[in-house]
Structure of ABC transporter substrate-binding protein:
Amino acid sequence: MSKKAWILNTCLGVLLSGCANDRTDEVEAEADGQALRKVTLKLDWYAEPAHGGFYQALLNGYYEEAGLEVEIQQGGPGVMPLQAVALGRVDFTLGRIDDAIIGVDRGLPVQLVAAYMEKDPQAIMFHASNPIDSWEDLDGKSIMVNPGNAFVAVLRKRKQIDFSVIPLDYGIQRFLKDPDFIQQCFVTSQPYFAKQQGVEVGVMLLSDEDYSPERVVITNTTFAEENPEIVKAFAESSLRGWKDYMEGDPSKTHEYLTGIHNGNTDELNAYSHKAMSEYKVVFGDASLGESLGLIDESKLEKTIETLRDLEIVKQELRASDLIDYSILPEAVRVPVK
């Protein structure tokens, strides 16, 4: 290792340690005379129905019942939530499980807490008039996607196809104007906006390509080691919120989401909630042994192996490098029947 690299790593280590200790001190603070532990959740995007379970837990008092005072911070374009939790600036964040694996491979001190979506709602969206029936039909096309997404390499290698990548701009204006345009989307949102503009769309869910990284809650490794009871309480309360959001009455949460982000509407909230149910995004497919919260160890090992085969991950990582099942709820370890 060069002297410059050694200095950089040393400074980063000091910074990470200091930030993590600061957050540990903060969670001991009392709120309103009660011994509530203050923790922060950083979203990966603006507040939307895809975060509904966390807001359901907040509004219904599930976090407070577990002794937590939770602040939910919104994300947006350019926000790097994984780095924020690695630096100890927040206690929890959200992301795809493969992003967490890549982060650990690159030295970030983060670990997994629970899966809040068993199936990633990311998809490829195209005009219904565009004759695309399979992944092979994408060969030779141009697709607007996030260039850093691992699924780009997965599709190219597994399907033996090639396509040009247009960097994602997080909008659908180009899609609306060009019937041949293809782009990455969330099945819970962009198809709705396209249909609102009179464009019928088709989608192919990326999780249907035998590469289905869960969307997960992520925390700082030092924070988890020093506060295992907080991590477990946050996981249990969040999963309770998600179950209630999907199976109970989401109206209060939808009203709240509309109030805190002007991109949300009653119609979008209803569409997103229905899409999550129809595509089995949150609970997964019970026939495959999937259930809310579960991070299956063998599947995690398989995802790591896939990323190594693609040379995206360099280290010989194991599931134990990413998750400590001993401090987590049973739902994370064992499928719920």
Notes: Residues 1-17, 23-32 have pLDDT under 50 and may be disordered. The longest strand covers residues 110-117. Strands lie at 37-42, 68-73, 92-96, 110-117, 122-127, 142-145, 164-167, 182-186, 201-205, 215-220.
